[in-house]
């Protein structure tokens, strides 16, 4: 089966604009955790340092709706190291467009909620001091867009 990834060009452009690591490809099979692990592994996440006895950072990813996922991507584009978790409106608009091709069956996961009203906390997937991003998929396509930052 050939998967048309052209509708996801906006996602790739967003990743390039914000300096994120990104993978876009066909949706993996399996349950939600298996899919999340498969997509994260495309960028070699989680790092070996983040996995320990009784700790699986992929299992701690939180489910987001489409709007929350767009916000998480916009927050990731900002300065995580300096605590600026307010999304840039222009990047938020780009993220909204980038996620639009995913069907109503889409799943979006992140390592935090990235909303000041809920409090900001996250579980890292990388060895970076700060990281944030979104893993998503629908029946046909999947992606991971992840930002790493050092202070």
What does it look like?
This protein is of the alpha+beta class and about 150 residues long. The chain has one domain (about 15-45, about 55-150). Helix content is about 30%, strand content about 20%. The protein has helices spanning about 10-20, 30-40, 65-75, 90-100; strands spanning about 20-25, 60-65, 105-110, 130-135, 140-150. The protein has a 5-stranded antiparallel sheet with strand order 1-5-4-3-2, with helices on both faces. Helix 1 (about 10-20) runs antiparallel to helix 4 (about 90-100) and helix 3 (about 65-75) crosses helix 4. The longest helix has 11 residues, at about 65-75.
Give the beta-strand count: 5
Strand order of the largest sheet: 1-5-4-3-2
How many independent structural domains?
A: 1
* Gross morphology: globular
Strand % is 15-25%
Which descriptors apply to this entry?
151 residues, alpha+beta, 20% strand
Write a brief structural summary.
28% of the residues lie in helices and 20% in strands.
Topology summary:
Blueprint: H1 9-18, E1 21-26, H2 32-41, E2 62-64, H3 66-76, H4 89-99, E3 107-110, E4 130-137, E5 141-149
Helix pairs in contact: 1-4, 3-4
